[in-house]
Amino acid sequence: MQILTLTSDTGLQDYYIASLKGAILKAMEGVQIVDVSHSIKPFDVASAAFQMQCCYRDFPDGTIHLIGVDSEPMIQPPEYSDATSFVSSYPTVMKFHNQYFISNDNGFFGAFLDDKEPQELWRYTVDKTNTLELKYPMKNCFLHLAKRIMDEEPLSQFTEPVNKYKKALIPKAVIEEFVVRGIVIHVDSFGNLITNISKADFERLPKDAPYEIKFANENYYIDHISDTYNAVQQGERVALFNENNLLEIAINRGARQSTGGADILFGMKQGDRLRIESSPAGSRKTLLF
Fold it and tell me: What is the mean pLDDT of residues 181-201?
């Protein structure tokens, strides 16, 4: 069975995803459609890359991922042929982890890969006379590329190999001697604050030394990283490393729709800063934010 995942910035309030799924079911027999997210902020390719980073390992070889965030290709028109400032972007197919990722080359691939290398990278040249491919490209272009892959048509027959791709930035944590500085890179539907501080980053601090996680302009702190949400009482703040080994700040049993999630209760949002401050014997007690 062919698995096809969908990630987009279209939301679900309009007909777009229903139209896309209808076209998929018409074009492919026996396909299993999986929605990753359709709530990506418009044009936020770094957030799309983050969502995909967190789940692609759970899919089997041969899975095809369609990423429709900032998906319209930018193809240099003839009248701008001498313009050096025009930056083109083309539909691109990447093979990685024995899976296929189809996206506009708008920075998604670089953000997703980080310091990894793709197995293969192929560019699709849009037929300028077929303007339909430029209208809702996820349905009218990316889907057709996926169908050709599913039909085991060699990529070399409809794309050309490339070795460069654009890179959108997913900020990394900054590690100092006694401090790890990071930001919130995602707020999930519960209001949990997912940060760019990894467990490996934390483990670079002095072992067995006291530490505090300071956030929300230092109005709040946590001095212990738990294994689970329920390690603290209901309604209490909790820090833990999630299944992707990223530091998460949450309220146990808190959610936006009920008592309020960490984002609401702490007044934090994507992009806000936090830090882990270690205090080994002989170090400074307080370090500036």
Answer: 96
